[in-house]
Design brief:
The protein is of the alpha+beta class. The chain folds into two domains: about 20-160 and about 200-325 and about 370-465, no CATH class; about 335-370, no CATH class. It is built from ten helices and 23 strands. An eight-stranded mixed β-sheet has the order 7-6-5-1-8-13-14-16. The longest helix is centred in the N-terminal third of the chain and has 20 residues, at about 125-140. It is globular, with a radius of gyration of 22 Å.
Length: about 475
């Protein structure tokens, strides 16, 4: 009996004696000039590279399990690209595909990687990005070295605003799909006299994971903020938006300097499906191009750097992952709706390019008619010590992230992760209507999708207890 107890004590102590390691790397994914820029109803063309785009990669190893987190500068990335990158990494290193969380930033000034609006991706660029993501992950794995880890939270409330507003009677026009029952308006315009109140809350928290070498030098910092993007770039500009600016500013504030293995700052997109950086009450000064991007990036980085000063880093934490596939129905048009949409499309004088919002949504209706009746959505939760990081393949409404935070003490959610299935409003917001609910390729999940996704994530949280 005494011998058995001794063996158990030795086994337990040996588990905590395992070495914790971390590694990080970046991989350039900047598209060529002349390539498509998505994020708007009209396609854009890259004419100027303001700042390079990257896949920013973080690898963690507890001695038994390895996890990888990647954030790529792109508006949206489909599952095919992420899966191709994961497969290349897995074949080269043996790391299981489910141990990798990959997401897009949602910057609206990046190269097109998935067909949305009137933007079409180049297959050459898609393959290039998949390879570059895989290379970045492998480099991060190669950079694994003894490390300490900590996580914290900072509040930056001044840059997040709910963009869905309740309006005075008569303040909500008919939708491009002919719907007259919307109760909210998205992006209603600054100082609009019909404004009543925001239709939802915001999440001011910046959650972050900090990695240091054993002698205290910064290795990487992975942050998460529920802000759609900032914008305000030049015409035809390629830019990583505030996500890239935050990464650079974070390194400056942490004194990363010129290290043999460069520090990697990473900002992931939280639950920002209904959150942006516009104060519709008119409380913001007008800024030149990139002016507001710099302000937001600096304020967020300053808050995180301040929180890092009191952060306690641990020399070992357990890692884990749980993942599942969830089948979700799509809201597809009827044959009659498709026939009407084809007639509307023909009214464009620039056909096949659409000019008006009505024509654009007719185009979306026709394209949606080619979709299958349901999709398989990957759900994922990572365990990093006591922290849980959930991943949802959509533009998640802030209410969903806040609800998960209420249920779990230490958690945050990464949106646009591992695939892309459009906006994810709650059933309540579907009833309110508004842009994010208008049926299109960017909004076609069933009304109860968020309820099913939350239930699926709870199963994964339970598995990781």
């Amino acid at each position: 009996m005494h011998r058995l107890i001794a063996c158990l004590v030795i086994a337990a102590s040996s588990l905590h004696a395992a070495e914790f390691r971390a590694g990080a790397a970046t991989s350039n994914i900047t598209p060529e000039l002349g390539s498509s820029i998505n994020g708007n109803f009209q396609d854009g063309k890259a004419a100027f590279i303001h700042d390079e785009l990257h896949a920013r990669c973080l690898a963690l190893d507890d001695g038994t399990n390895k996890l990888v987190l990647v954030v790529a500068d792109s508006c949206v990335i489909g599952r095919g690209i992420f899966d191709e990158a994961k497969k290349m990494v897995s074949e080269a290193t043996g790391l299981p595909m489910e141990n990798m969380l990959m997401s897009a930033t949602h910057s609206h000034s990046c190269g097109t990687l998935q067909a949305v609006g009137q933007s079409e991706p180049s297959p050459v660029y898609q393959r290039f990005v998949a390879r570059r993501i895989a290379d970045g992950v492998r480099r991060a794995l190669n950079n694994l070295a003894p490390a300490k880890i900590g996580w914290g939270v900072a509040d930056v409330p001044q840059h997040v605003f709910n963009r869905r507003w309740r309006m005075k009677p008569g303040g909500i026009p008919v939708t491009p799909l002919g719907v007259t029952t919307d109760q909210v308006k998205t992006n209603p315009g600054i100082n609009n006299p019909n404004l009543l109140e925001p239709a939802g809350p915001t999440d001011p928290q910046v959650c972050f994971i900090s990695l240091q070498s054993l002698d205290g030098k910064p290795i990487a910092l992975y942050a998460n903020y529920s802000l759609h993007y900032v914008g305000g770039v030049g015409p035809g500009h390629i830019s990583a938006d505030y996500f890239g600016a935050f990464a650079g500013r974070m390194g400056e504030l942490l004194g990363a300097g010129q290290q043999d293995k460069p520090f990697v700052g990473i900002m992931s997109n939280g639950t920002s499906g209904d959150i942006n950086n516009v104060d519709f009450r008119g409380g913001q000064a007008k800024e030149p191009p990139y002016g507001r991007i710099k302000i937001v990036a600096n304020d967020v980085a300053q808050a995180v750097a301040a929180a890092c000063k009191s952060l306690k880093h641990q020399d070992w934490v357990p890692l884990g992952v749980a993942q599942k596939e969830l089948q979700l129905a799509l809201r597809l048009p009827t044959p009659e709706e498709v026939a009407r949409a084809r007639d509307v499309m023909k009214t464009s004088k620039l056909f096949p390019r659409m000019e008006t919002m009505e024509q654009s949504y007719a185009h979306e209706t026709v394209r949606l008619s080619e979709f299958p009746p349901q999709v398989s959505a990957p759900l994922q939760v990572l365990k990093v010590g006591e922290l849980r990081v959930s991943a949802i393949p959509a533009e998640v409404f802030v209410e969903i992230g806040l609800d998960l935070k209420k249920r779990h003490t230490r958690t945050f959610t990464v949106s646009l992760a591992n695939a892309y299935h459009g906006y994810l409003p709650t059933p309540e917001h579907h009833r309110l209507g508004g842009y994010e609910t208008w049926r299109a390729r960017s909004s076609c999940l069933e009304v109860d999708a968020s309820t099913k996704i939350t239930a699926g994530l709870e199963e994964l949280f339970e598995k990781l207890k």
